[in-house]
Amino acid sequence: MENLSDLRVIEALLTRHGFHFSKALGQNFLVDATVCPRMAALCGADRETCVLEIGPGIGVLTAELAKTAKKVVSIELDNRLLPLLEETLADFDNVEIVSGDVLKLDLPALLCEKFGASRVVVCANLPYYITTPILMRLLESELPVQAITVMVQKEVADRLCARPGEKNAGAITVMVDYYAHAEVLFGVSKAAFLPSPKVDSAVIRLTRRETPKIETDNVQAFFRLVKAAFAQRRKTAVNSVSATLSIPKAQVANALKDCGLSETVRAEALTSEDFAALYRALGGAL
Ligand code: SAM
């Protein structure tokens, strides 16, 4: 098997197939030989575990995963990459490429069909333009996925892995925290990609909680509150929630007071438990 991190090998492959990168599809391929083995080692793949990959590119991470996993299924939107992948992954009989858009495919049906009852993890160098929708889809669809190990922009990694209540936190932090424990595994320089993007990256791991972090009767209404609190970041939580959800300001202020929280608190200072308490205190208003 050829070394898919070797620039000369990659360039020869791309030229042979007349392939040109699509910026719109977030195509930045890994060319640092150390990154994929680390991701494969940390994602939890083994002979009993199947891996779902999103966006194989020319298959550099796919090949690494196939060496340790029971089976790898990789979803690729760009059909121009299919003949390249046929060539680069020819040595593996435990890899299947599925052509399609990860945001449109029926993932529960796909996982059931391809992996049956096997343990499943996700490992991917994500197309950055759809990082949040992909992660929320994986978490919200209640797929039988135990861990999600993915490369994302460093700034996004910091936000996703902040603790709710910390300065870096955003609505997505609280939403991810509801489903999973999030951690940054290691940073990756922009020089590790071809073409090199403008920003550095990081590999993060989301490990699904056995039960959600907090109890709520309606997760979508809870997330609406969280998003509303962060919608106007410069404002206090009271003003942002009140303006976004059209709830009288005094009602939101009273609810915060009932939870023992200050009326002037900002959304980023609220923990997941604070949001849960506020959600309960606002009751029917949501
Ligand atoms: N895994 C390869 C690597 O590490 O070198 C490529 C990663 S590249 C950052 C993202 C990949 O996702 C590309 O192959 C791109 O074509 C693919 N992609 C973009 N949008 C997609 C979508 N909606 N569904 C599935 N794959 C997509």
CATH architecture of the largest domain: 3-Layer(aba) Sandwich
User: Structural class, please?
Assistant: alpha/beta
What is the count of structural domains? 2
Rounded to the nearest angstrom, the distance between the terminal CA atoms is 57 Å
Order of helices and strands: HEHEHEHEHEHEHHEEEHHHH
Could you explain the architecture of this structure?
This protein has 286 residues and is an alpha/beta fold. It has two domains: 7-208, Rossmann fold (3-Layer(aba) Sandwich); 219-285, rRNA adenine dimethylase, C-terminal domain (Helicase, Ruva Protein, domain 3). 39% of the residues lie in helices and 19% in strands. The protein contains twelve helices and nine strands. The chain has helices spanning 7-16, 35-42, 60-68, 82-88, 107-115, 131-140, 154-160, 171-179, 219-231, 237-245, 249-258, 272-282, and strands at 29-30, 49-54, 71-76, 95-99, 119-125, 145-153, 180-188, 193-194, 201-208. Helix 2 packs across helix 3, helix 6 (131-140) packs parallel to helix 8 and helix 9 (219-231) crosses helix 10. The protein is elongated, with a radius of gyration of 21 Å. S-adenosylmethionine binds at residues 25-30, 54-57, 60-61, 75-78, 81, 101-103, 125, 127, 130.
